[in-house]
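Per reviewer request, we include the raw input and output of the structure prediction for the construct analysed in the revised manuscript.
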Amino acid sequence: MTALFNHELLPDYTFKAIQYRTLPVLDTQGREVEGLHKTWIALDNEKQLNSYTTEAVKEVILAFRRASCDRRSVAVVFTAAGTRSFCTGGNTAEYSTYYANRPHEYLQYMRLFNDMVTAILLCDKPVICRVNGMRIGGGQEIGMACDFSVAGDHARFGQAGPVHGSAPDGGSTDFLHLYVGFAKAAESLSLCQPWSAHTALRLGLVNDIVPVHRTAGGEFIPNPMVVTDRFLDDRGRVVLGDWKTGDAAEDGKKLAADCTVDLSLLDRAVDGLVTRLMNTFPDCTRKTLESLRKKKLEHWFANAETNRSWLSLNMNTEAAAGFPAFHFGTREGREIDFVALRRAIADGARVDEALTEAVLPPAARENRRAWRESEG
């Protein structure tokens, strides 16, 4: 038999910041298929809600390139460690302590980020986003670059940029309207209020959702924090998927606390999708997805470079306040004083360190000062 070439960029590379595995694929009877597998690429920063570090971004690029070259891989499952989060975007520790006020460094980082999104969009295999928890900010962006999304119904979907000092220009302003339409995209991108998985399914953002909350008796129940019955509010609006409020929310929290989070149904749903993909012609499926991806790529390639430049310069202005506010803040406050900022700008204030200090939450201001002193 002819020895086949290896087309990977770094065939001997060992992943350290992410997980890369090959796992069995199943036939329609649930039996493992010999000679084929699925590729499992997982962010592995559970303590920081699977936010991607600079090193992780590099490895995701290599991982998708390796999966693309894998002749025996049926599909890629892009996911993350744990049960709380798929990805909450860029690592705010790096953003606030290294990249803030270093726009040229962030420019290089955004080159890597853009290459990561492009690697997903150009992967030769179908890509399934297994949403094992929050998909927020940059996590939403890399999730939407995938072809399919299957989520646990505890997941949250949304943006964080305009509330935390950035713009969702790493893909969300390119992709979100293709899924949910312009009006809902504008609402999500600007206001940054997260959607439940049920709302994401209703709007067409994901392909399927499954319950993950399991009672002490072993029964799976829908997310207790979400309205899962169709009914109209007093203005005649359908609120299926809305977050519960008031007493209903408190009751939902208590019920959720009494449950365990079990992702077995999520894995079953992902396996079922891989099986269905396996039972298609591989080249026909690849070409179909390539043609469909052109709609995303059209927007992505038109905007990625100018967005990269703007996001880098923004590290000297609003991001220099927004990211430290989040990273150094506490549960009592992770957002700047927006009213004070707007008033200062209206009065002609310079966007400088003094302004940043003035608008930071008190706890974030003190914690950042303490960190700077410790760093010398």
